[in-house]
Amino acid sequence: MGRPDGRRPDQLRPVKIELGVNVHAEGSCLIEMGRTRVWVTASVEDRVPAHRRGTGQGWVTAEYSMLPRSTHDRGQRESIQGRLGGRTHEIQRLIGRALRAGVDMGAIGERTITLDCDVLQADGGTRTAAITGAFCALYQALRRMKEARMITTIPIRSYVAAVSVGIVEGEPRLDLDYAEDFLAHTDMNVVMVEDGRFIELQSTAEREPLSRPDLDMLLTLAGAGIRDLVTCQKRAIASLG
User: Fold this and answer.
1) Strand ranges (DSSP E) for the chain?
2) What mean pLDDT comes out for the span 32-60?
3) Cα–Cα distances in angstroms (integers) from residue 147 to residues 37, 134, 143, 195, in the given order
4) What DSSP line would sit under 92-117, residue for residue?
5) Cα separation of 83 and 74, whole Å?
6) Tens of pLDDT along 88-101?
């Protein structure tokens, strides 16, 4: 059984990262991975949460939402429901954790950078696309802070990107779309820094427990995909001039 879009098992969907898509935000990004599209803005504020006050340390956090018609059927806005769903809460905490791992918090001072990630169109991998795009928007925001002499350097410790992998019909595959994710026996979201170290792994075996050899195979597949995504990030950032 081949992949729905004809890709090789180890091939990413077409990736497009465009920066500076919002004239108001300190950083902004539109990332497309296949038919999944996520709009990200980075906002800088001169405040920090209570647990950071007086420490000299900054904070990076994220909010995530899916627009009502990002999927096949219209979904209700969570703001109308009056509370965040468990999935949304989990994803935005994941994005925040991932980005904080790549930044020197002491170098940004007592400021908060908020990444707002809005899914325009969903076809699998929205959280991993959000992380990959949010890193680029964060980088742009930090660069603008340096240009404004708010900070002396761009305090990036390492590039951060994320991708999904899974086993579909017994075959390990990289960057699952929605149809593949639905059929996957095992699916996993992998967040890594550029040198191959892991920030977070989220894995679920739907039918059979995941063996160690299969886990290693999926992590190798994800590592190769993330290296390609980091290349895309660097290319987009270089376009800023």
Assistant:
1) 15-19, 27-33, 36-45, 59-66, 112-121, 160-168, 171-174, 186-193, 198-205
2) 95
3) 29, 20, 6, 28
4) HHHHHHHHHTTB-GGGG-S-EEEEEE
5) 18
6) 889 999 999 999 99
